[in-house]
């Protein structure tokens, strides 16, 4: 695709993400309004605090980072008013040029999965996002409604494959009868989804940056790898090449508390994000 084609509103998510990462640096910043973080910012754990927190993050970062990733649960806990804050944040972040990855980790079957997909991936939905995190542990095939709608709308998916939480290993490292682990199976499905796409497919995997050597897994899925764990969870930008190997060029490191802890000062939020983006870009380039 040409540069103009990758920035077109109807370009596939993978192409738009590759362009955003090249232009703004490969960084995803979470919007995670924990009660404790609201308190650290001097805000109440209520709708007013949620609105102030969310507005500050969007205003500080949406015009300069590649991806913003709101965690839906922290908005849903306030009911319909919280979801209204989320809807506004999604629209304003996208208007400012950030790609929005909705971290909702939806997973179900049949019409229910289709309804989840329509909530976040249908273009006329109030919560329409550039991409959505999904859970495949009712079987990868259960994601088909989301896969199909993502293709139709030019959106993307990030499928939980090798997550950073310790409990994930009991499922993701379990071995099938064919000798391949569940996590490796998910990666193989995603490679099939992305086959032939250029400059990058739209169907990504969630792979923790804290997992150490992953050379036994084929991470080259021709799609993005969302990598939580940078910053507060202990991983650093310098760890990325060793963890992801040649696939590091497609890694989208996610930082949440490492940036958000610098609020509510807008300048401090921007400086923290810029520092992480620079460190990550230098580490990836060095590889």
UniProtKB/TrEMBL annotation:
Residues 26-272 form the Orotidine 5'-phosphate decarboxylase domain. It is an enzyme of class 4 (lyase). Pfam families: OMPdecase. Its EC number is 4.1.1.23. The active site is at 105 (proton donor). GO terms for molecular function: orotidine-5'-phosphate decarboxylase activity. Keywords: Decarboxylase, Lyase, Pyrimidine biosynthesis. CDD domains: OMP_decarboxylase_like. It catalyses: orotidine 5'-phosphate + H(+) = UMP + CO2. This is Orotidine 5'-phosphate decarboxylase. It comes from Streptomyces chengmaiensis. The lineage of its organism: Bacteria, Bacillati, Actinomycetota, Actinomycetes, Kitasatosporales.
